[in-house]
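Sequence in, structure out. Go.
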Amino acid sequence: YIRSETASPVLFASHRSTTMKLPILVGFTLAAVASAFAPLQQQRTSSVRLNAWISEQVGILAPVNFFDPLGLSKNKSDDVMKHYRESELKHCRVAMAACLGWYVTAGGIHPAFNSELSTDPIQALKELPHLGWMQIFFACGAVEYLAEKIKERPGYQPGDLLGSAYWVDNSDEGWVDYQNKELTNGRLAMLAFFGVLYQDLTFGDYGDEIFKGLVKTFPH
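Output:
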């Protein structure tokens, strides 16, 4: 089970070293996104339980539909595919929260520190006191602990921390649509966060500065 949701402070220790590691991180992110889908041709060789999992149509979206260029879903059991979906949803939610937190920080809002930290999110991480890092560490640990306890419930579905599966299932088109919207926004957020991180590390642009290229291209 993967629990690497919070970036280590070492990641931001050096501007140069982080930039060198960025392609590797992007590769892992794309692999995580790809692992949640199965290509159409894999339906013939997959197990019956895997075909049943695919038939739910959650996360299989146009225009790519069954998207698994690395073949990570090939011959995988239903339990493994559920683990993939759990991991994808977790990364989606963390990425969406990270994008929101990035722009809150870029706006100069730091309620816990009287807005005294830098508006550059990366610089703010360097300025964050040890107490702040401890708060992040224990908050993530508490969320992980609660999530593990929730998984012990009978009938638990991947990512369903609020217990919605007790009231509705994937036969409800509205519920399937809701799940697809969360996955779509989460996948976009994973790519978007690496985009804004790259902009800051490479060009020093953050906040609305990342759009300055468009402003130059399309002047008023």
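Check: Residues 150 and 202 are 41 Å apart (CA to CA). DSSP finds seven helices and no strands in the chain.
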